[in-house]
Amino acid sequence: MILGKALAKYLTNTLGIETLKITTLKKFFKTGYLQSIAINMFLYDDYGISKKRDYGKIISIEEKIKILKGKGMEITDYVFLKNGEIKVPSNIVPESPQFIIDLGNMDFLLDEEKTSLEQQIRVSIKTIREYLFDYNLKLAHTPASFKLEGRNKIEILNYIPKDNTIVLNPYGEITATEEMIRNTKFFIIGGIVDRGRRLKNATYELSRRYGYDELPQVKISLRGSTVGVPDRINSIIEILLKVLTGYNLEEAIISTQSNADKVSRLIRELNTLEKFDYNTIINLKNWLKINDKLLKLALKKSKFKAYLSHV
Questions:
Q1: Does the pTM of the predicted model rise above 0.85?
Q2: Rounded to an integer, what distance in angstroms lies between the CA atom of residue 98 and that of residue 185?
Q3: Distances in whole angstroms, Cα of residue 118 to Cα of each of 149, 192, 203, 241
Q4: Alpha-carbon radius of gyration of the chain
Q5: 47-62 and 19-22 beta bridge pairing
Q6: Euclidean distance between CA atoms 116 and 299, whole angstroms
Q7: In what order do the strands lie in the sheet with 47-62?
Q8: Nearest to 228 by CA among 182, 289, 184
Q9: Of 135, 252, 121, which Cα lies nearest the Cα of 192?
Q10: How confident is the prediction for the chain on average, in pLDDT?
Q11: Which of helix, strand or coil describes residue 156?
């Protein structure tokens, strides 16, 4: 809730609000009420805060601000509702980081690939809103046929900023570090996933096509390998946001992995072992946080399938 914290600072320091009642939220996000209030306020322009006496029950305390709802005995002089007269300025939204999805290769995609890409963009918007706002996600080089559905405030660019910018590329020569992620403003993500897909090295080609191939091409790696590192655009953004909010990079990757990612990585680890060792395999299972069912699936697809009965 990066934006939620920024809202808390504004409510406390500028408006002097310590207790706030909410009456309704069109959208709620798991990262908290303050984050949800900010998103609703900026996405739906008719929402605001009204200065009036009201009562409610404390449902959460975030950044020292009491959040009230429903009936209760707790008093507040501020209520978040539709047509509230107090508007929070959108400049509280942090300018950094910025995630830019380059759609310059979209016309080369097959219909099913376009459908997958559009779905990843929609999920990316939801992911961004868990931490920041639409202003932190941009689309570049969109084809004329592209239309982003749903209420949003995503900006469309016809250029790639080059100051403090890296390009995320699973074949990149540079390996991402937590320090690099936390000190980068612009993250460029190609609107096509290279690894294991029809078009190889598409990120390099996209960079060359639009004149930013001199930027660092950076891969996200898990203990020296990209196997099992999520490659969907929304997952890449989620990994980066988790690092920016305090996770170490390994934790961010593993907590974002799909079951398929976990299995593929475990198969890779199993196939590097010289011999079957129960304790080593259990350590790998615990490291990747997988269940017994996935462990058996990985074993079945590895060189140790004969040892299925041993786990």
A1: yes
A2: 6
A3: 9, 10, 17, 21
A4: 23
A5: unpaired
A6: 30
A7: 19-22, 65-82, 47-62
A8: 289
A9: 121
A10: 94
A11: strand
